[in-house]
Amino acid sequence: MGEPYPKVIAHDLTRAFGRGPRAVAALGPLDLTVAPGEFVCLVGPSGCGKSTLLRIAAGLLRPSNGTLEIRTAGPRPAAMIFQDYGIYDWKTVQANVRFGLDVQRVPRREADARAAGWLSRLGLADFAHAYPATLSGGMRQRVAIARALAVEPELLLMDEPFAALDAQLRTILQDELLELTQALRTTTLFITHSLEEAIVLGDRVLVMSARPGRIIAEHRPPFPRPRTGDVRATPEFSALKSELWDLLRKEAVPA
């Protein structure tokens, strides 16, 4: 049997903002393939078009040129998690997690059961009837993750989901996400400024250039799966982090 057909295919993808001589080239040209079940991390300097790429994948932006194709079986193939949680303050935790299922018109009994299952899995069962304002930042981000996974997406898009958290909580949620995604094998595109995060989580780490963002390097962390956060203490982890930082520094500092 041959290799499985890619879940995500971008070809000659570009995106500019504005028109005429004042147009700003934000992204590309960029080519990218993501295999089913693969966890791909994107790192690059600020403003290089990482979030633009994710928004095109989510259907929130149209490319200026080129194509991005998501090959999935379901009518709602992707779910997106933002840095600012993106949950609704006026809905309870349970209602937030159930929201995508309600949009899909999943019967209420089934939706409640699936929401409850994800709340339990992410340690939020005792807060089902609480409102987001009463939760810590880490708990709010767990709600966002539960809401995204409850719809059973074929593609998970994550835009710096842990950037606003303190270092200790960020490490805890990285390890929880690592465990979840390894169990589910959900195809994931993950944007981060943290090299540690990318190396711990990713099957591949793609390095993007300064704007307009192009992929200039690809690295595969040398850690087999199932993987745990213990890889942070290995010499291979430190060596790869140093190599990635050398690449990023050249892009972030003007020549």
TrEMBL record:
<keyword id="KW-0547">Nucleotide-binding</keyword>
<keyword id="KW-0813">Transport</keyword>
<dbReference type="Pfam" id="PF00005">
    <property type="entry name" value="ABC_tran"/>
</dbReference>
<protein>
    <submittedName>
        <fullName>Ectoine/hydroxyectoine ABC transporter, ATP-binding protein</fullName>
    </submittedName>
</protein>
<dbReference type="InterPro" id="IPR003439">
    <property type="entry name" value="ABC_transporter-like_ATP-bd"/>
</dbReference>
<feature type="domain" description="ABC transporter">
    <location>
        <begin position="8"/>
        <end position="235"/>
    </location>
</feature>
<dbReference type="GO" id="GO:0005524">
    <property type="term" value="F:ATP binding"/>
</dbReference>
<keyword id="KW-0067">ATP-binding</keyword>
<dbReference type="InterPro" id="IPR017871">
    <property type="entry name" value="ABC_transporter-like_CS"/>
</dbReference>
<dbReference type="InterPro" id="IPR027417">
    <property type="entry name" value="P-loop_NTPase"/>
</dbReference>
<dbReference type="InterPro" id="IPR003593">
    <property type="entry name" value="AAA+_ATPase"/>
</dbReference>
<dbReference type="InterPro" id="IPR050166">
    <property type="entry name" value="ABC_transporter_ATP-bind"/>
</dbReference>
<dbReference type="GO" id="GO:0016887">
    <property type="term" value="F:ATP hydrolysis activity"/>
</dbReference>
